[in-house]
Amino acid sequence: MPRRTPGRSPRPVDPASPALGDDPAAGAGRVTTLLAVEELQAAAADLGWPEATGLCDGLVDALAHLLVDVADGAPRPSPRPTVLGAIGGPARPVDHASCRAAAAALRRAAPAFADGPAWADGAGAVCADLASLLDQVADLDRGGRLTLAHKGVVLRRMHVLQRRLHGLG
After folding, report:
1. What Cα–Cα distance (Å) separates residue 27 from each residue in 6, 16, 75, 108, 117?
2. For 89, what's the count of Cα atoms within 13 Å in the CB-facing half-sphere?
3. Helix, strand or coil for residue 94?
4. Which of 40, 42, 106, 164 has the fewest CB atoms lying closer than 10 Å?
5. How far apart are the C-alpha atoms of 156 and 55, rounded to whole Å?
6. The dihedral formed by the CA atoms of 112, 117, 118 and 120, expressed in degrees to the nearest 10
7. Would you list the domain boundaries of the chain?
């Protein structure tokens, strides 16, 4: 029969909790950052154009991965693949609600980058800029002013954001 130490029961370890000797404030910051990652993973903006929607999904995914790097205290961001987005496909109407929800999630996640290493500031700025772009697309479409001519502009701005993320390190 296995012996147990009296008065000591094993306790499950929460991976999000700080390790022994860690600063409790740092553990709380890690939990907050990982909650922002979960929220970003649920954000899916439908911009109507498959190319733009796919590129936006790739940017949001890259930002979520960068937040994990921030939570882990990585001195450099981990490598990320380049996302091109879907090529072709019929255009659909913009889903305003998904664009607004994704923009709000991005705005809530952006401050979590401020607590990270120096490279994270650029990722926070990309996060805020992508949120602004999603709001702009939703506003233009809602006002009936979004045309096919805007597609190229939106894609170019997303490619610029992607290059900025890849320039972080």
Report:
1. 30, 7, 18, 19, 16
2. 14
3. coil
4. 42
5. 11
6. -40
7. 47-77+91-166
Q: What is the pLDDT of residues 82-120, one digit of tens each?
A: 776 667 788 889 999 999 999 999 999 999 999 889 999
Q: Which residue has the tokens 């109407």?
A: 93
Query: 79 in helix, strand or coil?
Result: coil
**pLDDT, tens digit (0-9, with 9 covering 90-100), for 121-135:** 999 999 999 999 999
Q: Average pLDDT, stretch 55-66? A: 94
Residue-wise DSSP of 13-69 = PPTTSPPTTS-HHHHHHHHHHHHHHHHHHH-----SSHHHHHHHHHHHHHHHHHHHH
Count of other CB atoms within 10 angstroms of residue 130:
25
Query: How far is 35 from 77, CA to CA, in rounded Å?
Result: 19
What are 23's two structure tokens?
């600063």
Query: Is the pLDDT assigned to residue 150 strictly greater than 80?
Result: yes
